[in-house]
Amino acid sequence: MIRRLCSGCGLGPGSRFGSARLSQRFVFLLSLSALVTVCFGAIFFLPDALRLRRFFLLSSEPQRAGDPAGSGPGLGPRVVAAAATSSGRVGPLRRLGLDRVRQGVTDGERRATGEADGGAARKGGPEEAGAPPSAEPRAQSTEGVVRSQREKVKEMMKFAWDNYRRYAWGTNELKPLSKNGHASGLFGGLSGATIVDSLDTLFIMGLHEEFREAKEWVENNLDFNVNGEVSVFEVTIRFVGGLLSAYYLSGDEIFKMKAIELGEKLLPAFNTPTGIPWALINLRSGVGRNWGWASGGSSILAEFGTLHLEFVHLSEVSGIPKFAEKVMAIRKVLNRLEKPHGLYPNYLSPVTGHWGQHHVSIGGLGDSFYEYLIKAWLMSDKTDEEAKTMYYEALQAIETNLVRKSASGLTYIAEWRGGILDHKMGHLACFSGGMLAMGADDAPTDLSKHYMELAAEITITCHESYKRSATKLGPEAFRFDGGADAVATRMNDKYYILRPEVVETYMHMWRFTHDPRYREWGWEAVQALEQHCRVDAGFSGIRDVYSTLPHHDDVQQSFFLAETLKYLYVLFSEDELLSPEQWVFNTEAHPLPVVRRNTQEQVITNDQ
Ligand code: DMJ
Question: Do 255 and 214 touch, CB atoms closer than 8 A?
Fold first, then answer.
């Protein structure tokens, strides 16, 4: 073989090498083997060779039992079959290019989720897999450590889910101390919020049996014909979003049917003089109204401005244009309105179409409106120019009017009340680090680098809000006035309710920069959750992040399973899992596929 490959390279029997003395040959072979050892050493141990190493390790990885694309047990064959079936007809999956997209999930899972399954199997179960790695931060970049971190997050999900299943099955959320169900006013008579919110997380983590049971519950028990008032926003992001993701990931038609059925039930909320929807709707009677506390009977920006992704996808999967038309109409109203200093106030009357109180915030009441502008642009395969323009203009106004630096140099985004700044930042506002990073690439000339820097600065500030507490978890709101610097000063700002925004930003920042500190910070959050929020029967929020004495709020929020644990899992997974080129997370972390150019044009045309 060597001879064939090296004819003419001087290694044949008749060559000079062939006639060399034995000791010379020995010295030559010794040098050759030293050279080979050095080359392989470089591939595996030099930090810059990370990508190359990953290529080597992944390409030789065996397919494991439970891989979605494999022949082992689990959802795999069903996923492949669903993709094959759907590509055999002209339907939304084909139009969306989902045959390719779903293959993307499958590939990603082979490397990340499937790998996790294999890891668990090798280690002999979740107990052992759950042991926190004791490695130093530097060594945490090694594949084995990251895999065990991912396994730990999966174990947390299983623990949260098993306890919900045992003590609160079918109710909206679990009370992990009382060990029973928690009824939240946000969902009216609807039930099963945790089940629907968890579907895609279970799927992504390869918790197949749990996913199957959840699906069975959806099929047999998820009922929308209830006489109760629901929050249009909450039900859209959690239920419609959760069902759509479950459909796109698994291909199971039941999720699509349920999503469309619920979408239809929500439509009467848009029957207002302006088309700006009511905050609340009675699912049986179709009667809508706004929150009593909202300025002058207004609708809330973060609520009516955060329906876009789900409603566009409802049109995609149903072929019914009216869903997309409703949210396009909201966009038009907002675009036409005069904005104070270019800013969007949080309150807008659905009757008069006038702004209510001039309170502007990138945290609560405003947050996900901005998020959905940039995500609408990305989800439209970069065709939704209107969303793009509105996003960058809004961002510029926010930067000019709201972004400030504290005395110690921490960058924060303040709130704006009729021109006066309130120097506080909510936990909710911490999603903005990830949002800024997500939008940096397409920013107007010269601003890309700046937005990435701003994203990194906001992430540092939010991390500081965690670091400066005794529990290493962040408060609901932290201040930058009266001597405070990224700490809560009021008792009712000190709680932590298992919110995701900070780890959400770590996840995006990790994916855009591969700076290991974001994984380190994510791991700090995992350890803090374990230490302070894990109780006998699930995870609970805490009332004071500055005290290590346990004072739990006894609620395991559904977004903990939908978002916090999913983002942490993705943070410790390969980039191929739900890659940003193919998927956009809705504001409840439910992945929705990018709508390929030709399909999006169709939605826009229908609107004109
Ligand atoms: C989630 O329901 C969503 O992320 C929403 O956009 C904001 N609040 C919660 C989590 O904190």
Answer: no
